[in-house]
Design a protein that fits this description.
globular; 196 residues; Cytidine Deaminase, domain 2
């Protein structure tokens, strides 16, 4: 996908660092993924750590992007060993009007990035954002419940909960990012991006 190819080396390195920090202390990490004027994906200026950064999170949403960039995605780590996708992950991306999100696991150095392919979910996300902006929280919650019902209808019921194929009708798997050690000295970790 277009976004995975544009994630900078520095952003890859930060993703790896955040996964390893999560491995050490068991706390989720979050950064915004921001697009610069050349289309490169760079990290937000700040990062967020702990349960207050679990998606969705006001604190995570307030992280600012560098000057002349705009947030188009986000990345967060999971303290668990698998990369499970929740309804909150999907809905947060849609409500925030973002194009994609990435999840990293603390047990293996693997990141997977996803884009929302179901336009209905994106449109509902925009509706919810408009209601929140107007302060109509009760109506926003009602519409969010409708979105969750729609997502539940799209799930492929025989697949494990949270797996890619479970959400197969809503999400596109954009890419997988893995790291390997270089042969050079000093040893470096090199990111490899593969299309799924």
């Amino acid at each position: 996908m277009i976004y995975c190819d544009k994630i900078t080396k520095a952003t890859h390195n930060l993703m790896l660092e955040l996964m390893r920090d999560t491995r050490l202390d068991g706390k989720e990490r979050y950064i915004g993924l921001c697009e610069d004027i050349e289309g490169n994906i760079v990290p937000s200026k700040e990062q967020c750590t702990g349960t207050e950064c679990s998606v969705p999170s006001e604190k995570a949403d307030m992280l600012s992007c560098p000057i002349s960039t705009k947030q188009i995605g986000d990345y967060h780590t999971h303290p668990s060993e698998d990369i499970t996708i929740s309804r909150d992950d999907i809905l947060h991306t849609a409500i925030s009007n973002r194009q994609f999100f990435c999840i990293g696991t603390s047990k293996k150095d693997i990141v997977k990035c996803y884009g929302i392919k179901d336009r209905t979910i994106s449109e509902i996300g925009n509706d919810i954002r408009g209601l929140i902006d107007k302060g109509e929280m009760r109506e926003a919650k009602r519409v969010a419940n409708i979105a969750e019902d729609i997502m539940d209808m799209h799930k492929i019921g025989t697949e494990p909960i949270g797996s890619e194929s479970y959400w197969g009708n809503i999400l596109d798997v954009e890419c997988k990012i893995t790291w390997h050690r270089s042969d050079s000295r000093p040893r470096k970790y090199i990111a490899k991006v593969t299309k799924e």
